[in-house]
Design goal:
Two copies of one chain form a homodimer.
Chain A: E1 2-11, H1 16-26, E2 31-38, E3 44-53, H2 55-67, E4 71-76, E5 82-93, H3 99-109, E6 112-116, E7 120-127, H4 129-139, E8 144-149, E9 153-156, H5 163-170
Antiparallel strand pairs in A: 1-3, 1-4, 2-3, 5-7, 5-8, 5-9, 6-7
Helix pairs in contact in A: 3-4
Chain lengths: 172, 172
């Protein structure tokens, strides 16, 4: 079992996400994270899926996803050639006695403070999954109130891009 | 029609995402963005959905989502009391003649450079949807190769939190 990251270009229509996630559910694969965002072309959305599986699972998923009508491109991302990032919003308890410790930690991790009250600090952090997990571990002693994570999105380095495929799609 | 942001706590199981997105699809609502991430409790995931709709749509969605067995909490986020953030990875063409212009722009928007080749710059930016759109507009003249967006995630300010509800859920 290893981490799989799949990038999809799909038609931006109601129902597409249901068909994609349904394919994972029917086969009993749990998705560890999924994010959907607009692309520059309003006709298409881009879905990034992270899951665990072996080589057989990967090949099956790619094969089955490619058969879905609304899925235009499926790419298995080579992790060495890919930048993966996730965004987390996290709110912790911090009064006057602990606030400066929390803010020092935020500074080390390069987290941005996006809300501050007399009793709480809310921060925003981006990075790979391990970095976000390390920040959570640092903050646990202060009592974490809430965490919101987007799931990862992924882009190929330099020349590794979905775009040449996208252009083929766009030109019919 | 106005922007709706819904936060859900759901069981972390295969099939839940399909049922949630299927509900939107059956009713013909297109989701403008959706993100799913882990929470501190491995039993639950948190889903943030952004969609367009009026008050009637909002009430219907909340009502129908609450009927789904695997959906533990549905909260309509009050936008004035909510921090919404999205992450974008964006790759643009930039050779020796235009690279410094691109990097200057990145500096102004506080984007981080995460990959650089002789012909491309790949950057990471977080913010609300409008900020990401403004950065795209700035970069368009340089030729954008690829954009990957996570969709928004949302957290309530200060005392506004899903957690009191989550604790009720956790304690049965």
């Amino acid at each position: 079992m290893k981490k799989l990251v799949l990038s999809l270009l799909v038609n931006n229509e109601a129902g597409v996400l249901t068909r994609v996630s349904g394919l994972f559910a029917r086969r009993g694969f749990n998705i560890s994270s999924l994010s959907v965002g607009e692309t520059q072309n309003p006709q298409f959305s881009r879905i990034t899926i992270q899951a665990m599986g072996d080589e057989y699972v990967r090949a099956q998923l790619v094969h089955q996803l490619r058969k879905l009508h609304d899925v235009k491109v499926v790419e298995n991302m080579e992790l060495e050639q890919t930048v993966c990032r996730e965004l987390m919003l996290i709110k912790v308890c911090a009064g006057s006695d602990t606030r400066s410790q929390v803010l020092e930690g935020a500074n080390v991790f390069r987290a941005k403070v996006c809300d501050l009250t007399p009793t709480t600090v809310t921060m925003e952090l981006t990075g790979d999954t391990d970095k976000l997990d390390a920040f959570i571990t640092f903050l646990e002693p202060f009592k974490i109130i809430e965490t919101c994570r987007t799931g990862i999105t992924a882009i190929g380095r330099g020349k590794y891009t979905l775009n040449h495929i996208k252009e083929d799609v766009l030109n019919g």
